[in-house]
Amino acid sequence: MDQIDHDIMKLLQENARISLSEISTHVDLSISAIGERIRKLENHGVIKKYTTVLNSRSLGKELTTFILVRFKGNGDYDNFMSFIENNPSVTISFTTTGSYDFCMQYVADNTSVLNGFIQELRRYSCVDVVDTNIILDLKKIKPFQVNVAK
Questions:
Q1: Looking at residues 15-43, what average pLDDT do you find?
Q2: Does residue 148 have a pLDDT over 60?
Q3: 142 in a domain, yes or no?
Q4: Partners of 134 in beta bridges
Q5: How much is the pTM?
Q6: What band does 14 get if pLDDT is binned at 50, 70 and 90?
Q7: Do residues 71 and 23 share a domain?
């Protein structure tokens, strides 16, 4: 990857719907060359996907939470993971190190819905502790970005 690839990635991160024509004016390459570079970045897994960031509150999801889980043995871990993976209100999840084994972001309409979800988590035999943190105010959200040296 060279500086042009980095510049292309930066432009795509700012606006994934930017046209090849507009990219070409920023990096001074032909449209076909830009398209080929983007295809290579996609094929090599550098660009994983293009997505839209939605405002969950404007869609009625008033609560955003981080839920931490500590496991106790394997139990029904596979069923737990399937439940998490198939739940559209779980927007991101991680296995972690430290005091907890698993972390997820969960969006809910209200505290009643959140409480129901927490109770559902506690029904899995592999779950020992569930700790919930409600997000009061979003301070920063930014995807990983390439460094663009000028």
A1: 95
A2: no
A3: no
A4: 65
A5: 0.74
A6: confident
A7: no
The DSSP letter of residue 125 is T
- Cα Dmax for the chain: 58
Number of domains present in the structure of the chain: 2
Reading the block at residue 102, the tokens are 């698993």
- Could you tell me the residue range of the domain that residue 95 belongs to? 57-134
pLDDT in tens, 48-98: 988 887 778 888 888 999 999 999 987 899 999 999 999 999 999 999 999
Same domain, 23 and 72: no
Q: Looking at the domain assignment, is residue 35 inside a domain?
A: yes
Total residue count of the chain as it appears in this document: 150
- SS3 of 31-62: the string is HHHHHHHHHHHHHCCCCCCCCCCCCCHHHCCC
The pairing of beta strand 102-108 with beta strand 127-134? unpaired
Note whether 38 and 64 are same-domain residues.
Answer: no
Do 124 and 61 fall within a single domain?
A: yes
